[in-house]
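Saturday, quiet lab. Running sequence design on the structure tokens for the scaffold JK sent over.
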């Protein structure tokens, strides 16, 4: 009974409520609003990937935008060269695997080479900027893979939508597709972080040297978790490409690299639900400002991050979760009672 009560908290209730809202949302809005929310959801995978490797494993990375771009570009080249709509699910799968493989190779050289902490951030930032710079210079006709031109700054246009058989996923069907994928990924990650592997990742984050002394192969765990984060970021890039039908080098630019870091930090980097919620709020807020002619979303987001660092370093959404636990579930008093019971047992023994 106690375990059941511990699972009833603000985070879980909010997560369930959010998905219920997202599933019924298309019933009350226009196709244009559904299309917009599809885009917002596609970007959630990117922040979840960073929350996983940074929040739960302590690997600070600016490379998620690079893996985002790799996944999107691979899907575009693969599917457009095939010319067969039914092969798009294979392109989706291969794109995710390629992103994870590239991240795993990079992670292998970094972590087995003894590079950690701030230098991982610098290396991944260089990789991201280098990818954008290279892709921006591919405008010439000689820059082709098969029959698909890379397009330079103009990027690749006409990327096919995902098709299940002869049924193309568009509009509301595409919305429900990515929403179901998000639900599966979210539940999978929540289960992952309470698994043995997940606890090992948290142990590495908290004290890498102690984890090594306990006999764990820390570089192997870091490489695997970094590869998983790369695969998730690639999935986000593919969903973005199929949403808009295009990919440009700017998706791997400096702004694209730093935005997930800010979103995860402001929402709460050690909480997947917080990262998901804050991402959806930001993109909704950003588009609302853009629609009214203002471009201050990043400025406001930067100011919010400064306030978070000063007053709520755990993150805005995580702090609200804790406040909700204290007010609604009396978790604070329960924790105090548990501490008193523990002290009483120690005195008796």
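Result came back. Writing it out in full:
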């Amino acid at each position: 009974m106690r375990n059941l009560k511990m699972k009833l908290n603000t985070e879980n209730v909010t997560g369930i409520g959010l998905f219920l809202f997202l599933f019924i949302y298309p019933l009350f809005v226009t196709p244009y609003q559904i299309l917009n929310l599809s885009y917002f959801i596609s970007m959630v995978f990117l922040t979840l990937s960073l929350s996983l490797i940074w929040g739960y494993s302590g690997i600070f990375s600016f490379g998620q935008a690079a893996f985002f771009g790799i996944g999107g570009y691979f899907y575009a080249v693969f599917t457009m060269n095939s010319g067969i709509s039914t092969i798009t699910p294979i392109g989706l799968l291969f794109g995710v695997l390629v992103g994870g493989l590239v991240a795993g190779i990079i992670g292998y050289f970094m972590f087995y080479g003894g590079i950690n902490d701030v230098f991982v951030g610098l290396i991944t930032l260089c990789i991201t900027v280098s990818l954008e710079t290279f892709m921006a210079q591919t405008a010439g006709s000689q820059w082709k893979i098969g029959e698909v031109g890379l397009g330079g700054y103009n990027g690749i246009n006409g990327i096919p939508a995902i098709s299940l058989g002869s049924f193309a996923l568009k509009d509301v069907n595409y919305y429900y597709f990515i929403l179901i994928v998000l639900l599966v990924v979210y539940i999978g990650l929540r289960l992952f972080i309470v698994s043995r592997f997940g606890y090992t990742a948290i142990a590495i984050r908290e004290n890498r040297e102690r984890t090594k002394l306990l006999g764990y192969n820390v570089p192997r765990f870091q490489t695997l978790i970094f590869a998983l984060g790369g695969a998730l970021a690639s999935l986000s890039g593919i969903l973005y490409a199929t949403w808009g039908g295009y990919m440009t080098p700017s998706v791997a630019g400096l702004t694209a690299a730093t935005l997930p870091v800010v979103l995860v930090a402001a929402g709460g980097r050690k909480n997947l639900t917080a990262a998901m919620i804050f991402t959806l709020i930001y993109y909704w807020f950003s588009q609302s400002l853009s629609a009214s002619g203002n471009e201050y979303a990043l400025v406001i987001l930067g100011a919010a991050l400064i306030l978070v660092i000063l007053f709520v370093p755990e993150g805005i959404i995580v702090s609200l979760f804790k406040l909700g636990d204290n007010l609604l579930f009396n978790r604070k008093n329960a924790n105090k009672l548990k501490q008193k019971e523990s002290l009483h047992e120690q005195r008796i023994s």
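Notes for JK: Residues 1-6, 343-349 have pLDDT under 50 and may be disordered. The CA atoms of residues 54 and 60 lie 5 Å apart. Ask whether to fix the surface positions before the next round.
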